[in-house]
Amino acid sequence: MKNEQNVPVRKEAWEASKQIGRELAPQILALVRLRNQAAHSLGYSDYFQMQLDLQEIDGPWLLKTFDDLSQRSNAAYLEVLEEIEQAQIAQFHVEVKELGPWAWGEPFCQEDPLDSHELDQLVEGVDFSQSAAAFYTRMGIDVDPILQHSDMYERPGKNQHAFCINMDREEDIRTLNNVNSTIKWLETVLHELGHAIYEMGFEPHLPWLLKEPPHMITTEAMALIAGRKAYTADSLRRLVGEKPKALLQLADRSLKRRQLIFSRWVLVMTAFESELYRNPDQDLNTLWWHLVEKYQKIRAPKDRSGKWDWAAKYHIGLAPAYYYSYLLGEMFASAIEETLVKECQASLESPQAGKLLNKKLFGPGNRMPWNDLVHHVTGDFLTPDAWIREFASVRELDLR
Ligand SMILES: [Zn+2]
After folding, report:
1. Spacing, Cα 195 to ligand 1 middle (Å)
2. How far is the CA of 306 from the centre of ligand 1 (A)?
3. Fewer CB atoms inside 10 A, N or C side of the chain?
4. In this predicted model, what pLDDT tens digit does every residue of 309-322 receive, in sequence order?
5. What's the pLDDT tens digit per position in 158-215?
6. Distance between Cα 329 and ligand 1 center (Å)
7. What spacing in Å lies between the alpha carbon of 102 and ligand 1's midpoint?
8. Domains located in the chain, CATH noted
9. What is the DSSP letter of 96?
């Protein structure tokens, strides 16, 4: 779906990606009912609500916050969608009403389909380990011990993903990557090291059990801020050297697009899961496409009724009730960036920023609930405001 030009073949490939849904749906539904049964036995209305409660997320707050974010980023998203659809019309020689998920680069329309290999020119010949080490040195943080323990490059038979792992909650922190020469992998190396410096920063006297983040949101935020720098002009110049301005601008624009596109996908996933657990007996495929049209504003293909498209997404079955964390992490990341400017008059790549994050964000480990930690770092509880200012400012200008 990234490269195929033939429309019928693309449609067929998209359809094929949904076939797994039919195989899995009955089993996922059995699992959903079991999860609900366990939640009921503990006095919760359903499993989704139980998971939110156990993760210290206030359910009504979450839905209200996402609703707010969705409305305030609507104009900016529509602008991005227009840009994408124009490109798709030109690429596939179809009319706008014929467009659908088949025209995107992956089956769920969660990634930027305009993401081009052009941007990979930016990282040609760059040594990512060296470049990332220099990045963190600018924050006053030495990541060499982590890199020495890390597995950086592709090889046959190796796990194909990327992650960070703290082996002993002492000093042995490692990352696994599969670096190849793309901007995506520069982002990923910075991202995983962001998790790693968080783990490195726990106050040493904390008991073992508290040497962890209070929630995925807070460590994701650090990793996300660092990863974003692979696309922002100022940081890019330092990471990869001086490059043509047009290319840097393209990278910057692609970051904004990706933020808006992915946020819509999180809204679909969160609303769907919340409804799935509230009532697993409803017409789930109709619900799924209703949400895709509502948030992603992508036309549902005809003839999807009675199918199991929702069940083809890995997380629905096997990583339930946590997708929302990605967007809360992005919101917190934007809030941290504003705090750094306010508190240190400096960007992320400064010793002052490194110091502040070490002391306030990493140091406390799991001593306070995640939302208190957010307040501890930024002086405020989590809202979408900073994220909206950073990525969806069109709307705010329109309102004035
Ligand atoms: Zn991460």
Report:
1. 7
2. 35
3. C
4. 999 999 999 899 98
5. 998 899 999 999 999 999 999 999 999 999 999 999 999 999 999 999 999 999 999 9
6. 9
7. 28
8. 7-115+261-321 (no CATH), 120-249+326-399 (1.10.1370.40)
9. G
The pairs formed by 142-150 with CB atoms below 8 angstroms and a separation of 24 or more are 143/193, 143/196, 143/197, 145/171, 145/173, 146/173, 146/174, 146/175, 146/193, 146/196, 146/197, 146/200, 147/175, 147/193, 149/173, 149/174, 150/174, 150/175, 150/176, 150/177
Rounded CA gap, 262 and 373, in Å? 25
d(CA 154, CA 172): 22
Distance CA 250, CA 118 (A): 9
Q: Are 257 and 229 in contact (CB under 8 A)?
A: no
Residue type at position 32: V
Give tens-digit pLDDT for 80-114.
Answer: 999 999 999 999 999 999 999 999 999 999 999 99
Among candidates 340, 142, 114, 325, which has minimal Cα distance to 229?
A: 340
| Digit-coded pLDDT (tens) for 277-295 | 999 999 999 999 999 999 9
> Do 234 and 341 touch, CB atoms closer than 8 A?
no
Question: What separation in Å is there between the alpha carbon of 192 and the centre of ligand 1?
Answer: 6
Q: How far is the CA of 341 from the centre of ligand 1 (A)?
A: 23
